Amino acid sequence: EAQVTQNPRYLITVTGKKLTVTCSQNMNHEYMSWYRQDPGLGLRQIYYSMNVEVTDKGDVPEGYKVSRKEKRNFPLILESPSPNQTSLYFCASTFFGTDYNEQFFGPGTRLTVL
Amino acid sequence: AQKITQTQPGMFVQEKEAVTLDCTYDTSDPSYGLFWYKQPSSGEMIFLIYQGSYDQQNATEGRYSLNFQKARKSANLVISASQLGDSAMYFCAMRAGANNLFFGTGTRLTVIP
Description:
- The complex is a heterodimer.
- In chain A, about 0% of the residues lie in helices and about 50% in strands.
- Chain A is an all-beta fold.
- Chain A is globular, with a radius of gyration of 13 Å.
- Chain B contains no helices and twelve strands.
- In chain B, strands 2, 5, 6, 10, 11 and 12 form a six-stranded mixed beta sheet that branches. In chain B, strands 3-9-8-7 form a four-stranded antiparallel beta sheet, with no helix packed on it. In chain B, strands 1-4 form a two-stranded antiparallel ribbon.
- Chain B is globular, with a radius of gyration of 13 Å.
C-alpha cells in the first residue's frame, strides 16, 4: 500500500529535550516536506527536500532541522524544543516536477512541549 | 508572493443540500495548481480535488466540484448533496513554482441533520 508513515503519532516532551520525528514514504517520491498546523493559521511549510541531500527552508524553519540521506526518509529534528513548537506536524511527499502532483500526507504527529 | 485566502472560518449546511466553500488566491506565476483537502476530526489530510491553471474545464470528483474563475482568482469548492460525514475542516491550497504548497486557514463545515 502506497503510504507516508510518521512516528511517533503522539509525543509529550519537555523544553530542551532533543527529539526526532521520523517520516518514511514507499512511493519513490523525490519531493518531501514537513508542515506544522496551528489553529487559525492552516498548514505552514517548515522544510522541504527535492531529492537526496537537497533540503531547503520553508516558511517557518526556525528551531527545526531536517536531513535527507535516503530517498524514502525525511526526519524532522527539534534540537531544543520550546512550548511554541507545540503543534500538529505533517510529513508529505510527491513526485517532483509533474504538473499534477498530489501530495500524499502522513497521518500527523501531535507534539506537546511542556 | 503566494497567498491563499479562505474567508469563512465556519459554515453550516443542511444534510442533502449543496454548499460552497470559498477560496481566493494570489500568485504571479502563470502555472499553478489548486487543491482542496479535507481534514476530519481524526486529523488526517484527505485529497479531494485538483485544478490546474491551464485546465479549461472545472474539475469534478463525485460530489465535489471546483468552481474555477481564473480572472477573479477564485477556486471555490462545491459539495453537492451534503452528508453527515462531510463535517470536517476543509483546506484550499495552491502549488506555484516548485512543489511547495501554500495553504489557506481552513473552513470548518458542519452538516446538520
